[in-house]
Predict the structure.
Amino acid sequence: MKVLIENVSNLNDMIMQGEVQEAFEKFYHNNVVIQYNDEEPVIGKVANRKIKEADLNNILEFKCAKPLKVTIGEQATMVEWQFQDEHKVFGERKFTQVAVQDWDQGLVIKEKLYCGNNQK
């Protein structure tokens, strides 16, 4: 449990500092499955990297990423985030998102993100 607490804390710290891509590379498993709301899950780090890069390329200004609540269980974490940025498509955004993560050997193997339709 101690390692999981350290890993989620380090992951969250990197996201708060705007190091989203670096955090993804460091803490996500090669076979990660990521799903937004009820959309089809995306399988694999390569496919998910492309989605993250496309989203990050649309952010004109990163303003804030703040974890509001963090819950840690047996190989699972849940983080409620508050984000604020300036997005090319959606303009000024301030929103919350919940990330539910399953961990395996110190890496996120599965993540489901609950957010509004224009926040991903």
